[in-house]
Design brief:
10 helices, 3-stranded antiparallel beta sheet, LLM class flavin-dependent oxidoreductase, TIM Barrel, oxidoreductase activity, acting on paired donors, with incorporation or reduction of molecular oxygen, Luciferase-like_sf, globular, Bact_Lucif_Oxidored, 8-stranded parallel β-barrel, Luciferase-like_dom, alpha/beta
Length: about 350
């Protein structure tokens, strides 16, 4: 059994086949797809976050809106770039969105991906202190964020406040949302950062690329990363069991439209490239008839090691078609793999 979610990159463009031609289109269709996914029995609705791009950028209004329109589905990000975040303001936003959704947020955060602009975080007012990198800043922001959503009291109260304080001593960020601390995920591209996330008690979000640390196939390296993460989690002595997600591009070809869109897109092998001065291995895509998909996916060691699979969806094809993609996986593929 696995949880199955979708991951939308939230692109919009004026391309001839795009059904998402504006930011408004993407935001409203993102909500509509989450509603449809919940009706189909999908477990999660996740959204990418990119700045200075024609993509989804400010997650918390969208997450709150999805939370208000749905009642069961998990709602998350994959991922929020912590180089751009004020961790205290983010704690307020995420606490409010989690309360609106009834405690269904599953927030993926990380050091971030390559940007559309040079050092975009500087335009947001952030930079690295001397002797540190922005990766250090992202990890520091994460540690602060985790502490404050866990109820840390740190702000000295005004002796003559506008309203009476609820208790003596330092004050925490409000609102607090119980349980949110256990629903934070770290988007990790390496074994070391996976182990760091385990030590801090974050769930692991492993994507469709990873630092190439051994030359082995992507899915094997990903499974090894998950194994090291779980070992670090156990060594840290956390009381709860962690969650682990992987992302995949998977398309079941069940009609002529599927064949037209993806019938020639079955990338049967990994690819290697460089991203942010890191040699990275990129996982293959899957596009085939359901029986063949079941056979192929059953050999994916990364998927086997995870408890949650996030299906990347081509959001510019519109909410209705993406709901069809999800329905095809839920109906024709997931049962054959034992995911349902």
């Amino acid at each position: 059994m696995k949880k199955i979610g979708f991951l939308s990159f939230g692109h919009w463009s004026n391309g001839p086949y795009s059904q998402a031609r504006s930011a408004s289109d993407v935001l409203l269709q993102s909500i509509d797809l989450a509603v449809a996914a919940e009706e189909l029995g999908v477990d999660g609705a996740y959204y990418r976050v990119h700045h200075f791009a024609r993509q989804l950028a400010s997650p918390f209004p969208l997450l709150a809106a999805v939370g208000a329109r749905t009642s069961r589905i998990e709602i998350g990000t994959g991922v929020i770039d912590m180089r751009y975040e004020n961790p205290l303001y983010m704690a307020e936003d995420s606490g409010a969105a989690d309360l609106i959704s009834g405690g269904r947020l599953q927030l993926g955060i990380s050091r971030g991906s390559p940007e559309q602009v040079i050092d975009g975080y500087r335009y947001f007012g952030y930079g690295a202190p001397e002797g540190e990198t922005m990766a250090d800043v992202a990890r520091h922001n994460t540690e602060v964020y985790l502490k404050v959503i866990d109820g840390a009291r740190f702000a000295e109260p005004n002796p003559r406040p506008m309203f009476p304080n609820p208790h003596p001593g330092p004050l925490p960020i409000e609102p607090q949302s119980p349980g949110l601390r256990d629903r934070i995920w770290w988007g990790s591209a390496s074994n070391a950062t996976g182990e760091w996330a385990a030590n801090l008690g974050m769930n692991l979000m492993s994507s469709t690329l990873k630092e190439d640390e051994s030359g082995k196939p992507f899915h094997v390296q990903q499974a090894e990363q998950i194994e090291k993460y779980r070992a670090a989690w156990a060594a840290a002595g956390h009381e709860r069991q962690p969650r682990v997600s992987v992302s995949r591009s998977i398309f079941a070809l069940v009609n002529d439209q599927d064949q037209a869109y993806f019938g020639h897109d079955d990338e049967g092998s990994d690819s290697v490239g460089h991203i942010d001065n890191m040699r990275a291995v990129f996982g293959r895509s899957y596009a085939a008839e359901p029986d063949k998909l079941i056979e192929q996916l059953s050999k994916d060691e990364g998927i086997a090691a995870a408890d949650t699979v996030l299906l990347t969806v081509p959001n510019q094809l519109g909410a209705d078609y993406n709901a069809h993609i999800l329905e095809s996986i839920m109906t024709h593929v997931a049962p054959g793999l034992g995911w349902r």
